[in-house]
Amino acid sequence: MQKFSLNAAALALACLGGLGGLGMASAQAADKFPDRPIMFTVPFPPGGPTDAMARILATELTRELGQSVVVENRAGAGGNIGAEYVARAKPDGYTIMFGTSGPLAINKSLYKSISYDPRTSYAPIIYVGYLPNILVVKASLPADNVQGLIALDKAHPGKLNFASSGNGASSHLAGVLFNNLAGTKLQHIPYKGTGPALNDLLAGQVDMSFTDILTAMPYIKAGKVKPLGVATARRSSALPDIPTVAEQGMAGYDVSVFFGVVAPKGTPPERVQVLNQAFSRALDSDSVKKAFAAQGLEASPDRSPAYLGRFIATEVDKWQAVVQQSGVTLD
Q1: Residue segments in the chain with a per-residue pLDDT below the cut of 50
Q2: Potential cystine with 75: which of 16, 45, 66, 136 (Cβ 3.0-4.6 Å)?
Q3: pTM
């Protein structure tokens, strides 16, 4: 009887051990991430530069993660519709956003009503990089550098103008910041998009624009516009011979469009880390590096989630002051 009891006890322990092992295996299976497609939200329409970058990344991420990364465009309200959608999504790592300076910094101050806060509504994943703005003027303007432009403006106050892609766009706020730091009186002329603004600059109908370097580069190389200064703190690797605006006597002038990936607040840190590492490997791939370099994108100085979180908070504060000075608000 005692022998039977010992054997029965041993069998019971073995069964429990087996069940425990099955439980551990089930838990490990449940923690496997990702085990289904990831939705990569772009808060802008298909076909633009942000959408193109997202699709380049999605292709490489699909290889890295072994699961499909599907680009989903949710455009409208300067990026707010897509940004709000992601902020409200389930925080499981399967819905993420490829955001830019607008929805992740500027819009918080620009729009009267916004239902998310870029500083608190997201779990930052990775700072991808930034696209510098550049000050370009029409070929006939008698100024060859920033100080020459400032002197020309002060000799004819209020006569010079700059085109932007619309009220509150980075190309608009770059001009506001320039006026504030230089004491100039450049007049703002908003357009409905970068294309129309650039067309009038090329035709000589407006004097200058603080546009993105990707848009300006072919016209600079063709001699159709004159570049006076790169708008970021460091020179552009795509146009290394052009000095920055800051180098030319305007310390602190730094305007670019940044790109960052975020998930909804509350996304598990271990899943954020999986995504961060996959994005980092994708950014290091030859195909992505080559494609992004061709677009003039500058690499991020730090790829950690914490850095993106700090950077977003700094950008929100920076652009809040500039938006207030511009006097522009959008519904």
Answers
A1: 1-16, 18-30
A2: 45
A3: 0.85
